[in-house]
Specification:
By secondary structure, this protein is α/β, with parallel strands linked by helices. The chain is built from ten helices and eight strands.
Length: about 260
């Protein structure tokens, strides 16, 4: 299924999109994301939001100078930040007539069949009720964030479990380039990717910003996981959430990773 025709869409938003460099919530950006998601729902699409940002917001809320290096410190920041982040989402989605619903998951959601089934049932019921499921890893008690890669991998898992037709990853870069555009002005955007190769993963590099734990490599790994299960993936700049319309209306944008034809 192409992104244009997807009736169910997962949108993943990273910490660098949701916060300013100082870690404080980027209200204008979050409001734009809420408006776009609400408008997509008005058009008849079902949307699931996978949101990072709890640790970054918690660090700011607690008045810390930087993200804690130790696991308990990160978990404490996440516990504070998740409350703040959901309060912000709830406020903005309410303005557009929708109820925001929080789902926090741990790694065992993909390892234990019963937990997987419970998460799927909860997502399905919330979508049927017209709510917006907002999913994050349960960072306050889990230590798997480094494995999930700032929710990139989690968003792919959610897209597959939910039977979504598309996964849109909003990040701090406007797609996948043949080299880092922040270091090389001649870097070329690759608009369509038919297959993710080991060479592409190697060239993608490591972590992203100091506010998150992801980077382009984790996004490629997420795209690989999703496309192998028949979900088309797009990487798009989170600076302009309204560009999601261009993508879903067939006008292009960012980088699109095609679903594998034999995946289903």
């Amino acid at each position: 299924m192409s992104i244009k025709n997807a009736g169910r869409v997962v949108v993943k938003v990273g910490s660098s999109t949701l916060t300013y460099p100082n870690g404080r919530p980027h209200f204008r950006r979050i409001e734009q994301i809420a408006r776009v998601v609400a408008d997509l729902k008005n058009s008849g699409k079902q949307v699931i939001l996978v949101s990072s940002g709890a640790v970054a917001v918690g660090v700011s809320r607690l008045g810390l100078r930087e993200k804690p290096a130790d696991i308990p410190g990160k978990q404490a920041a996440a516990a504070v930040g998740q409350c703040d982040l959901m309060s912000i989402y709830d406020r903005f989605f309410s303005e557009y007539g929708y109820v925001a619903a929080q789902i926090l998951v741990n790694r065992d959601v993909v390892e234990r069949e019963e937990r997987k089934r419970n998460v799927v049932n909860t997502m399905e019921t919330l979508l049927q009720m017209g709510a917006v499921p907002i999913i994050n890893e349960n960072d306050s008690v889990a230590v798997e964030e480094l494995e999930f890669g700032d929710n990139d991998r989690l968003s792919a898992i959610v897209a597959v479990l939910a039977g979504a037709g598309a996964l849109i990853i909003l990040t701090d870069i406007d797609g996948f380039y043949d080299c880092d555009p922040r270091e090389n002005p001649d870097a070329r955007l690759i608009a369509v990717v038919e297959e993710i190769t080991p060479e592409m993963l190697e060239a993608a590099g490591g972590a992203g910003t100091s506010r998150g734990t992801g980077g382009m490599r984790t996004k490629l790994e997420a795209a690989d996981l999703a496309t192998r299960s028949g979900v088309e993936v797009a990487i798009l700049s989170g600076e302009r959430p309204d560009r999601v319309y261009d993508l879903l209306e067939g006008r292009g944008g960012g980088s699109v990773f095609k679903a594998r034809p034999a995946a289903r």
